[in-house]
């Protein structure tokens, strides 16, 4: 067994009592540069790079093997080959989207426009709104269609109104102009200005991200007549016909932002049809740009890469090709990835870790001093129904319906969208499939799904530095243990706590307990609101937007510490390389967040990301944990000091 902590990577100039993040990561931050094709780089991204290289090796081996026509492996090979065939792609230029642009050009009235929105939705062109199918959040054993606001091409509605984004708005209009020129569309500069004007109107109807994460406000169930009433003048029959979706699909729907849909319907009635056609032509070009000839790819990257994120170089073609294959055939690749990179012993160890984290939550909930008996009983009931999924799904997706042509990249992607849309629509009226995964096994991430009350850990994240079969337990609990605790914690954060153990929105809290909970979360909001990342001086964390993730981090690390103690069964952890078990635990947490971010990307994430910047995910969390202060013997003169009465403990 190894320590799992590289002591040579610790800073001798910064004490953990003053800045745990820079003590653990100082040398790494000094020595590493962000790769030219990235806007952010850290432990997660290093591991993602490794997974990407592993998948590349699998894909290229598949291409070389010459598998039978129609097999999944052949589809993987042919799709990748279609992306790597630059000669064919260059020769075709904008021709692959000519039929979609012709469809838009032939629109004669608003009814045609609505039908075209439906048709293009089925081909992967994003429209005025987004739809998807999921379990009903108040009847989680049934599927239902969800509707969500859309229609804008900048990252967030705030980009259309805030002064700080004025330069980006100017650059965006110039970008749209150049893209329309490449597509051969008329009056590109005038059209770009009008598209910006229309998107600005659309954006004014958007809910902001804080309001949009409220699970109660965003659950608005309507029948067909209610949907018609919400969107006067929008011909849903034409949209359904265009998309090839049966009318039964929208007999019952959940609309997340009702105000937006009313405002969008008004814009469809009031804005000149030709302006909408310009906008929809832009959407066609924009969504296809990464798949078209080099001129489109380069211009797309110039704005969405360089301008928005600060990354100076486009990712290598093979990386983008692997991404396309993962998007269309993710679980087909996942089968091959798991066979090579996820041993059964890793899954067994994870089962043990998850069990200890759940038990630690049970013990903490059982002894909370701010929660009453009735709410406590229901919280424990919910905890008892958590479903862990580890590594990979028990049932794999079937890609038999997907046809792949090695000489037709855009067609392959369209057919993939159509196959996945058909797969989703087929769920309606069927029992909810609780074996389904929302991430592929090779993904370096994890998630909690409140409608299934499940915590999911793909094989991709179950690698060092987050999880190491050969590492000391303190290190694993400080990294992947905290990730497990974080995902369980989402079931009890400010929004996840509104779902019961069956996955339904159901207020199982007493009023007094909810008030006590919010008293603590309000303190957490205030702590984060004053934080400003070094990359963006004067710009602060949005404490309300990041609240759920901050609760997850705080609860996750706190509970992981308890779980590690449980795993010791009374034994004292060894001192390794001069570090106690508790020191290794907190250093493992800190090194997991080692990250460098370009200023443009840092600003973008402050606007749209529900996660706090990495340095605060490290330091702001541990300041609230008594065991951190005990481990490193902090005092009032230390930079990491937070007075006991100011520390927030929720779970």
UniProtKB/TrEMBL annotation:
The keyword Protease applies. The keyword Nucleotidyltransferase does not apply. Pfam families: Peptidase_M13, Peptidase_M13_N. Residues 445-648 form the Peptidase M13 C-terminal domain. Residues 16-393 form the Peptidase M13 N-terminal domain. GO terms for molecular function: metal ion binding; metalloendopeptidase activity. Keywords: Hydrolase, Metal-binding, Metalloprotease, Protease, Zinc. GO terms for cellular component: plasma membrane. Its cofactor is Zn(2+). SUPFAM superfamilies: Metalloproteases ('zincins'), catalytic domain. GO terms for biological process: protein processing. It comes from the Bacteria. Belongs to the peptidase M13 family. This is Peptidase M13. The lineage of its organism: Bacteria, Bacillati, Actinomycetota, Actinomycetes, Propionibacteriales.
């Amino acid at each position: 067994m190894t320590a799992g902590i590289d002591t040579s990577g610790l800073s001798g100039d910064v004490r953990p009592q003053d800045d745990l993040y820079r003590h653990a990561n100082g040398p790494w931050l000094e020595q590493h540069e962000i790769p030219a094709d990235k806007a952010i780089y850290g432990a997660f991204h290093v591991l993602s790079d490794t997974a990407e290289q592993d998948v590349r090796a699998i894909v290229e081996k598949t291409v070389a093997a010459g598998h039978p026509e129609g097999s999944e492996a052949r589809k993987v090979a042919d799709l990748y080959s279609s992306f790597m065939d630059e000669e064919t792609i260059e020769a075709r230029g904008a021709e692959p989207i000519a039929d979609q642009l012709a469809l838009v050009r032939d629109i004669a009235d608003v009814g045609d426009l609505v039908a075209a929105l439906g048709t293009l939705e089925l081909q992967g062109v994003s429209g005025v709104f987004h739809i998807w199918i999921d379990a009903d959040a108040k009847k989680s054993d049934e599927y239902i269609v969800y509707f969500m606001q859309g229609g804008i091409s900048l990252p967030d509605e705030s980009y259309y109104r805030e002064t700080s984004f004025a330069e980006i708005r100017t650059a965006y209009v110039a970008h749209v102009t150049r893209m329309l020129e490449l597509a051969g569309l008329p009056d590109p500069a005038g059209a770009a200005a009008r598209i910006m004007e229309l998107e600005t109107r659309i954006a004014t109807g958007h809910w902001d991200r804080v309001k949009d994460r409220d699970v109660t406000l965003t659950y608005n169930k309507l029948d067909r007549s209610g949907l018609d009433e919400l969107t006067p003048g929008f011909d849903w029959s034409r949209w359904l016909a265009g998309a090839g979706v049966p009318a039964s699909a929208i007999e019952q729907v959940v609309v997340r932002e009702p105000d937006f849909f009313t405002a969008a319907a008004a814009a469809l009635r009031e804005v000149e049809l030709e302006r909408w056609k310009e906008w929809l032509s832009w959407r066609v070009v924009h969504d296809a740009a990464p798949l078209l000839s080099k001129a489109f790819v380069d211009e797309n990257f110039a704005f969405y890469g360089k301008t928005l994120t600060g990354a100076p170089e486009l990712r290598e073609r093979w990386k983008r090709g692997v991404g396309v294959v993962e998007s269309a055939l993710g679980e087909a690749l996942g089968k091959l990835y798991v066979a090579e990179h996820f041993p059964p012993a890793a899954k067994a160890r994870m089962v043990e870790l998850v069990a200890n984290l759940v038990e630690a939550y049970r013990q903490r909930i059982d002894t909370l001093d701010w929660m009453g008996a009735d709410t406590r009983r229901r919280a424990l009931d919910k905890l008892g129904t958590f479903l862990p999924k580890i590594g990979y799904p028990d049932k794999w997706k079937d890609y038999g319906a997907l046809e792949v042509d090695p000489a037709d990249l855009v067609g392959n992607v369209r057919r993939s969208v159509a196959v996945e849309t058909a797969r989703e629509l087929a769920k309606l009226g069927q029992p909810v499939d609780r074996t389904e995964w929302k991430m592929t096994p090779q993904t370096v991430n994890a998630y909690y799904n409140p409608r299934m009350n499940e915590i999911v850990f793909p094989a991709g994240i179950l690698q060092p530095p987050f999880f190491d079969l050969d590492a000391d337990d303190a290190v694993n609990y400080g990294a992947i243990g905290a990730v497990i605790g974080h995902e369980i914690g989402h079931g009890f954060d400010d929004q996840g706590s509104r779902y019961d153990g069956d996955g339904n929105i159901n207020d199982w809290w007493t009023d007094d307990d909810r008030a006590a909970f919010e008293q603590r979360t309000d303190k957490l909001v205030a702590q984060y609101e004053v934080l400003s990342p070094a990359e963006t001086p004067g710009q602060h964390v949005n404490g309300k937007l990041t609240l759920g993730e901050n609760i997850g981090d705080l609860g996750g690390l706190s509970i992981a510490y308890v779980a590690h103690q449980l795993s010791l069964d009374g034994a004292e952890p060894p001192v390794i390389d001069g570090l106690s078990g508790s020191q290794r635990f907190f250093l493992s947490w800190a090194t997991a967040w080692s990250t460098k971010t370009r200023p443009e990307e840092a600003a973008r994430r402050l606007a749209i990301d529900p996660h706090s910047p990495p340095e605060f995910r490290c330091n702001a969390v541990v300041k609230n944990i008594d065991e951190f202060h005990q481990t490193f013997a902090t005092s009032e003169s230390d930079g990491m000091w937070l007075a006991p009465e100011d520390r927030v403990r929720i779970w």
